[in-house]
Design goal:
With 422 residues, the chain is of the alpha/beta class. The chain contains 14 helices and 17 strands. The relative contact order is 0.16.
């Protein structure tokens, strides 16, 4: 790809405590990776063409660590139900449609286009149990040029018969997808048991063996609501906690693991999660919609646990990670209202902290992604707003305004490893 130079108002979060703002600066990109940021372009680059975005903002592209591509069409439906009823009444029937490859191609294409439109350039995705349609999702994302981990869902019990897999077939088809799609540089497989209640012990053990055999990451759900946690205790009575189920079957520790939600965790689970470097994914919109609860993010961060952000469509109604950032901040403020004396564990999230979770924090699951530090992938979005308003605002205020009031229409360009997508 060679060398590229971009100019604009550059904003990123190298740490959760710092929002770095480089006004009217240059960012030099070599072979898709950031070489440096300069207020004045060094003489060695004097003859190079510059893509000048003027007063627009250059931000890292968003990272969505938990989304169900197959549920995109059911956004906004059945959200007056709790998790288990919502799954049974809406989700499982929606996912059954993906047995039809023609339907899957259309639905996944629309999903991918909207993902990119919203400025998400890296994502971890649940597909369905269907091997052929999951393969189509790999191919669509490869064609679009964004980075993703894609998982064929595994489940062999406690679900409708039309989605219940035979354990050996579930593992066989998962391994076939790994062989077929495991070598792509941007779109890669991830092992995806839906969650413990829909997985037999035999299935969980086999997935753990695949994680070790292929050194593949794992994604699933953990402690989303109290009834789910109670159900897991009933299904796995020999395991002291929900997290112990995943640990004992090899889904923690062998390779990187993402666990969505993680709201109701015991002290033992916090120790297991930290010791095995599991990343929790906070999905604020879906937790509100399904009345699941509020992740105590500040408390988990205090325990040294890594936390990223996810849209969790379709329990969430939007793929816009800017809204996940805002909602995470808002819910952290509600935690302070509910328990004002638990200082410092109820201190609300700052804008920098929540933005970090949706960029560099979540991006760490992919490697050097989500920041504009030297050696990081140039994954970026270009944001513009009404100059009649932004002209009166500082750059930090413009950034905040985009997160709270902006939408996909404000994003005029998107880049992954220096290549424009969308």
């Amino acid at each position: 790809m060679g060398q590229q130079i971009f100019k604009g108002n550059i904003i990123f979060a190298p740490t959760p405590e710092e929002l770095k703002i480089c006004a009217k600066s240059y960012i030099v990109v070599k072979n898709g990776m950031v070489e440096g940021i300069y207020e004045r372009l060094p003489e060695e680059y004097g003859e190079e063409p510059v893509k000048d975005y003027g007063e627009r903002l250059i931000l890292p592209g968003f990272v969505d660590l938990h989304v169900h591509a197959s549920q995109f069409d059911q956004r906004g439906l059945g959200l007056d139900r709790g998790l288990i009823d919502w799954l049974n009444d809406y989700t499982f029937s929606t996912e059954s449609r993906f047995s039809d490859p023609a339907y899957a191609w259309e639905a996944y294409s629309i999903f991918a286009d909207e993902l990119i439109r919203q400025g998400t350039v890296r994502t971890c995705i649940f597909a369905t149990i269907h091997k052929e349609s999951t393969g189509l999702l790999f191919e669509i994302l490869q064609e679009k040029g964004i980075g993703a981990f894609v998982g064929k869902v595994n489940m062999d019990r406690n679900c409708p018969d039309f989605l219940k897999e035979k354990t050996e077939i579930s593992i066989k088809e998962t391994e076939e997808l790994i062989a077929q799609y495991g070598r792509h540089p941007l779109v890669k497989p991830i092992l995806t048991p839906r969650f413990a209640p829909t997985s037999s012990e035999e299935l969980l053990k086999a997935i753990g063996e695949l994680a070790k055999k292929y050194n593949l990451p794992v994604q699933s759900h953990l402690s989303e609501n109290p009834s789910e946690v109670k159900w897991v205790r009933e299904l796995f009575p020999s395991h002291p906690t929900y997290s112990d189920v995943y640990l004992d079957f090899g889904l923690f520790g062998h390779a990187p693991a993402l666990m969505a939600h993680g709201i109701y965790l015991t002290d033992r689970e916090l120790e297991l999660i930290k010791a095995n470097d599991v990343m929790l994914v906070h999905c604020p919109e879906s937790n509100i919609n399904l009345v699941s609860g509020i992740m105590p993010v500040r408390k988990w961060l205090h325990h040294g646990i890594r936390v990223g952000l996810g849209s969790d469509v379709g329990a969430s109604h939007t793929l816009a990670m800017s809204k996940a950032i805002v909602r995470a901040i808002q819910l952290s403020k509600l935690m302070k209202v509910f328990d004002p004396h638990a200082k410092p564990l109820t201190k609300p999230l700052t804008t920098a902290e929540a933005f970090y979770m949706a960029t560099k924090g979540g991006g760490s699951f992919f490697g050097k992604v989500g920041s504009f530090e030297k050696g990081y992938s140039f994954d970026a979005i270009i944001v513009e707003d009404d100059p009649r308003i932004t002209g009166r605002l500082s750059l930090e205020e413009q950034f905040q305004r985009f997160l709270y009031t902006g939408d996909a229409r404000n994003i005029i360009a998107r880049f992954v490893e220096g290549r424009q997508v969308g």
